[in-house]
Amino acid sequence: MKQLSDEILIEFSLGKPHAFQAVFDSFRMRIFYFVKNLIDDSLSAEEITSDTFVKLHRIHDKFNTFNNIQAFLFITARNASLDYLRRRERERQHKAELKAHEELGQEGVLPLFAETDIEANVLQYIYGEIEKLPPKSRLVFKLFYLEGKSVSDIANLMQISIQTVANQKSTALKLLRMKVLNRPGLFFMLLFWAVESVIRKKY
What we know:
By secondary structure, this protein is mainly α. The chain has nine helices and no strands.
C-alpha cells in the first residue's frame, strides 16, 4: 500500500484533488477486496467502493490523519456491505414467497389475494390510483366494484344511460390496467379484492 505523507494528509483535508487521488490509490484495492469478501459480488463491490470514497470526499475536511481516513473507509464500506446483504436477503425471501404463491396458484389454491394478505402499501397504491381516475369513471368504479351496485342502479343514481355506465366502467379499468402494467399481479389483485369486497357486502 502506498504511504501517505503528512503533507498529503493535510492537503487532503484541504480538498486538494491530487491528495484525494493519492488517498484513493492507496486504499481503493483494500476496500474493494474487503467488500468483495463480505458480499461475494464483484460488480456491487465496485459500486460500494466508489460510494465509500464519494462519502469520504464529501467530508474530507474532517480528516487529516491516516488512521482516521482508514477507519472511516472500512467502517463505511462495512456498513454499506451489511445493508447490501440485508437487501439481497429481503429480495431472496420475496422471490421465494412469490414462487411459493405461484405454485399454490397452479395447484388451484388462491395465492395471497385475501385482504388480510394484501400489504398496506399495495392497498395504498390501489386506492391512490382509483382516486386519480376521472371523476365520473371513479364514481362508477366505486359504485360498481366497491359498493356492489348494479349497472342499472348506477344509471338511475347518476341519471345517465346504462351504456354510459358501461363505458365509464370500461374506461376506469383500462386506465387502472395501464397504471399497473409495470407491477405484475397487481391488476388481478385489484379485481379480486374488489370482487371480494362486493361479496362481503352482499353476505
